[in-house]
Amino acid sequence: MSENITVVLPDGSAMEVERGATVEDVAHEIGPGLGRDTVAGLVDGELVDKVTPLTEDCEIEIVTPDSDEYRQVLRHTGAHVFAQALQRLHPEAELAIGPPTDDGFYYDVANVDLDAADLDAIEAEMAEIVAADYALERVECSRAEAFETYEDNPYKREILESEAAGEDPVSFYVQDGWRDLCEGPHAESTGEIGAITLLEQSAAYWRGNEENDQLTRVYGTAFESESELEAYLERREQAQERDHRKLGREMDLFSVPAHSPGCAHYHPNGMRVRRELEEYIREKNNDLGYDEVRTPELNKADLWKPTGHYEAFKQEGEMFAWEQDDTEYGLKPMNCANHAHIYSEGQYSYRDLPVRFSEFGTVYRNEQSGELSGLLRVRGLTQDDGHAFIRPDQITTEVTNTLEIIEEIYDLFDLEVLYKLETKGDDAVGGEDIWEQATQGLRDSLETLGLEYDVESGEAAFYGPKIGLDARDALGREWTIGTVQLDFNIPERLGLSYVGEDNRDHQPVMVHRALLGSFERFMGVIIEHFNGNFPPWLAPEQVRILPVSDDNLGYAKRLQGRELSAFRVTIEDRSWTVGKKIQAAHDDRVPYMLIVGDDEVENETVSMRDRFEEQLSGLPVEQFRDRLATEIEKRRVEPGIVERN
Ligand SMILES: [Zn+2]
Ligand SMILES: [Zn+2]
To answer: What's the 85 CA to ligand 1 centre distance in angstroms?
Structure first.
């Protein structure tokens, strides 16, 4: 073993350091200023304490208070501040696990009941701990001592036997004499937290498993400053107001009843939205040259063994599978194997490729019950899936065409797409050449289209490089949605082939792609993104006619049945005042209201009012009809609808 290892810095430059040097040592080596500012390190993408020794070649990024990752460090420290405050006031409380999350932290605790007054008191105590500016110190102690410390805490003991298995010594973080088993990293002192608050509490099973103890999960967040915390709380409130589960109920779009956990029931209104999305994606698949297929949900488990999916999904407990008549059956967790099977039954020459199959494929995955949330975290979902079988020389063209359509789709919804190129990791299958060619193909596609992208090196699945897509919504939140992924593994394992120009058998590359991802997730995202104000082409109810009196009802019915019969039109016939009718239509987020009174009946016109309270009176019916027809045909999103919500 050599005494030196190579660390690669974010700018791509490499540095030789002694094996066992810490993150902090590397920072000092780069420059003394950086050394002083070091809070933590990102080693091969993983956030670690600055005292972590580097034992092998790696990529490293130094985390300072200016880094994006610093917030995670602060928030983890926030979790410790909460835990110390909790135990000061409730010494009997047992701590389970308290990680940072994307926008804060939580701590799962046991043996304590907390009401709102308790949480207020804990928060006040937390403020004192922050004000006292206690130093956080990393202390190592033997496993034996750690087990002794946690004699009465089964959760920490389990962590010692799982996450910290075999570690001796183990590390604790100590502040003001209070200690927690922890790997770090942490801020230097509690005073680095500029603002901290508790957000809510809920029940959570230990390790997310229903068969385990039920714990109390307390959520909080921490920021560098009060103003940042306030801005966050404002965004959070907005997000709660437009929570898709709340809007789903209010607009009667969908429900997820207790008897089908994680599987949505689409109500007629929700189904109207979904059908429009399906029709749109069918058009796009058609443009891309896909042939629609249909494959069963129910399959023998053997289907997924040659592809490796059985191993991957079954081991993770993510597949629904059971024995029936001595045979194991399962619900498909993905469509790839079925589509590959259809390909395998054909005979193709190099001239036939690409061969492309699309399917609105319904798949099931056994997500943990604690993770389920409306349409965004589900067990049953329908992907707008597709697989193309192509020659290696077709990679760039195929991916470019797909990305072009993806750009068009997200632009239509006024969502910004962030691209990530995930490249070869250590566990990759397939030769160096094909990885090289494929990764270059993906890169060329992104660059041909002038798309900006992040490279996540080593992050690709073992079977091929990938372009991941995140959509950024109106509130600036990012959602993982579609994907374009290359696969050398399934063609290899299933022996898929085509006859080349040389009359020999060659192996195709399989492209997995989803444009929206799944209809469930995409609907959840756009409900929140549009705050329920769907553009007219998607709106479950496009027009509501509000007759001023019962005398105008006949005219309203004629419009509904004749002039406007191409649209989704309802009539508000309750004997309410016009003002109340307008309010109800507004609450139901109907794009267009048509108020019809005696004048309108006489002149064959309507008074149109849109949801931004813009009004046009005396509008000839045909003019309104043509305007709406164009908006729907072009799938227009009203200008500014996303910002004005
Ligand atoms: Zn910790
Ligand atoms: Zn696939």
So the answer is: 14
